[in-house]
Amino acid sequence: MAEEFGLMLAGPSTLVGELDVVNPYSGETIARVDQCGEAHIEAALALAHQTFKRKSGWLSLQERAAILQRAADAVDSRHEELARGAASEGGKPLIDSRVEVTRAVEGLRMCAEHITNHTGEVVPLKNDNAQTRRIGFTQREPIGVVVAVSAFNHPLNLIVHQVGAAVAAGCPVIVKPARNTPLSCFRLVKILREAGLPEAWCQVAIPEATDLATALVTDPRVAFFSFIGSAKVGWMLRSKLADGTRCALEHGGVAPVIIEQSANLERALPAILKGGFYHAGQVCVSVQRVYVPNAILKNFSSRLAEAAQQLVVGDSLDDKTEVGPLIEAAEVERIHNWISEAVEQGAQLLCGGKTLTNNCYQPTVLVNPPATAKVSTEEIFGPLVCVYGYDDVEQAIEAANGLDVAFQAAVFTQDVDRAFSLYGKLDAATVMINDHTAFRQDNMPFAGLRHSGLGVGGIGHTISDMQIEKLMVLKISE
pLDDT of 132-178, one tens digit each? Predict the structure, then answer.
């Protein structure tokens, strides 16, 4: 029987509809979630705004830290249950969903530790008049109501990054999880409430229509908008924000990797395999473009394809599965069309290129697709790695930097001088050396450049974004 999730926000008890949440592999309806209407959105915003305005009711730093630590303990105690829940709704293999839950525990603890150690500063002020002195210092305060819109691909840990950070910062937050994967969000918010967080400080919204989600985000009572998702939607919403609303946008990229002549292929190949096919490539910094010297192109690409063919594709709840399903059938069709188009345009298909049952797609390796093909210019968000040959590394750098997106990049080399040189030349917020582009720890700055996003993610940076540094100047007259 499908699990039922009721409303977790203010407003009338009358329901406007239900959303079926489906396991993308089996097609089974695993839960039903109550949707909210216009009256719920208005009530949720009013409650969050009133909660922030009533400063006497603000949660102290110590209270917030204690709630986050208790929540971390609770998530840890339900580790396998939450991992299986995330794998079931989102299709990420269980082996990787377990890692996600571990990261969620660490992220909640990181939120608590960050605010207990994050202070203001003393501001040195000139005191030219001997009869008068001024002392300046800052303290941190919450910015106001936060609205967070999240993506499907990490249904628990992304919520920690947005909601956990808002709780740590002291901001009332309304979160809208992805419609495909809302269950992990509901479970985490329930855990936070059980850990002592008053309901007004965190509400969950599943609007019945897109225009209601837009109304939520663009309301003038919103002080900070946190968005994780597609560039098209993120930039559109930013253009409609109320005056004064600050925001952080995390979109995607077409992550490049440069294999330098001296690279150790025994280290590079398994890293590229993981970075390209982890979560079926549904990661915003997934390896997509790999530039390899022509002298080793055939050896590298054939070995990568051979390894890709050995990956176990299937049910995300099976412990042996390494590559799970795509989130929905429309994505399978889109990915197949892009790959077929690239092959028609001259790309060499080494492996994959075929749809499978249960929304799965074969891990695919293409060699030298045209520079103008969609697989070379747009984020595929699927299990595909494109390999390109080069004679001069400067050609690879030019190609890597040639798109309007820039996020994380990687270089494989055993030459330290070359490592520093390529680090400096690549357009990216982060350059991995001898590791894949999808590596991330939750305290790292995580920033998309150009069309890839706005602002800097990561636990500490997000908490800072959700706070103001408030200055006090004290005039002392002798």
Answer: 788 999 999 999 999 999 999 999 999 999 999 999 999 999 999 99
Q: Is the pLDDT at 356 greater than 90, yes or no?
A: yes
- What order of strands is seen across the sheet that includes strand 384-390? 348-351, 364-367, 384-390, 287-293, 255-259, 408-412, 430-433
Tell me which H or E stretch contains 469: strand 467-477
pTM assigned to the model:
0.94
CA dist., res. 424 & res. 339, Å (int):
32
Q: Among positive and negative, which fits the CA dihedral 215, 218, 220, 222?
A: positive
Q: Which residues are the active-site residues?
A: 250, 284
Domains and CATH numbers, the chain: 3-251+452-473 (3.40.605.10), 255-442 (3.40.309.10)
Q: What are phi and psi of 310, to 5 degrees?
A: -85, -10
- Please list the residues that pair with 290 across neighbouring strands: 257, 387
CA 194, CA 71: separation in Å to the nearest integer?
8
What pLDDT shows up at residue 130? Answer: 64
Residue pair 307/275 in contact by the 8 Å Cβ criterion = no
For the range 401-404, what are the long-range contacts, defined as Cβ-Cβ under 8 Å and sequence gap of 24 or more? 401/425, 401/426, 401/427, 402/371, 403/254, 403/377, 404/450, 404/451
Going by C-alpha positions, the residue among 64, 242, 224, 48 that lies closest to residue 143 is: 224
| CB of 37 closer than 8 Å to CB of 208 | yes
Kindly give the pairing relationship between strand 405-406 and strand 449-450: antiparallel
Locate tokens 């926000």: which residue?
Answer: 9
When pLDDT is cut at 50, 70 and 90, the band that residue 478 belongs to is low
Strand stretches in 143-297, DSSP E: 145-149, 173-176, 202-204, 222-228, 246-250, 255-259, 287-293
Contact status, residue 160 vs residue 90, Cβ threshold 8 Å: no
163 DSSP 8-state letter: I
Tell me which DSSP letter residue 358 carries: T
Determine the distance from the C-alpha atom of residue 389 to the mean position of all C-alpha atoms in its chain, rounded to a whole number.
31
Give pLDDT, residue 132. 72
The answer to whether 423 and 433 are in contact (CB under 8 A) is yes
| The pLDDT value given to residue 12 | 83
